[in-house]
Amino acid sequence: MENWKEKIQETVATYISKRDEIENFLEECLKELEQTPFNYGTSWKQDLISPMAWSVKVSIPKIGEVDIVFSFEDIANSQGEYNSIGVWEKQFPTDIKSAIEGILVQKIIKELS
């Protein structure tokens, strides 16, 4: 019966590691966005929807605040390919920072459209 406890602990450790990695890259991306000459302000917090979802606010001069939420699922779906029968097969990205950048761009543009 000890095996199930080890499995839970292993899953928790993996979760914490992935979450921390994603949050570090998110923080890095938002700092880069703040350092642009456009005077963007940013903030983020873990979303209440899921332990693997994040709420991001981007303050844009002359527009206001743009609120977006993205999840682990968004990151996981950001890379992949269509198989031979046309079904999308997701592959967790090896470059998480680029995936987060792409998601931020996509979601901000969608909010402003």
Describe the 3D structure.
- The protein is α+β, with helices and mostly antiparallel strands and 113 residues long.
- The chain has helices at residues 2-34, 72-77, 96-112; strands spanning 41-46, 53-60, 64-71, 80-82, 88-90.
- It contains three helices and five strands; from the N terminus they run H-E-E-E-H-E-E-H.
- Strands 1-2-3 form a three-stranded antiparallel β-sheet. A two-stranded antiparallel ribbon has the order 4-5.
- A hairpin with a 6-residue loop joins strand 1 (41-46) and strand 2.
- Helix 1 (2-34) crosses helix 3 (96-112).
- The longest helix is centred in the N-terminal third of the chain and has 33 residues, at 2-34.
- The radius of gyration is 17 Å and the shape is globular.
- The mean pLDDT is 90.
How far apart are the first and last residues' alpha carbons, in Å? Answer: 54 Å
Helix fraction bin:
40-55%
What is the overall silhouette? globular
Oligomer: single chain
Order of secondary-structure elements: HEEEHEEH
Mean pLDDT over the full residue set? 90
Structural class: alpha+beta
Beta-strand fraction estimate: 15-25%
Q: Helix tally?
A: 3
Q: What is the makeup of the main sheet? A: 3 strands, antiparallel
Low-confidence stretches: none
Task: Tell me the Rg in angstroms.
Answer: 17 Å
**Biggest sheet: strands side by side, in what order?**
1-2-3
Strand elements, count: 5
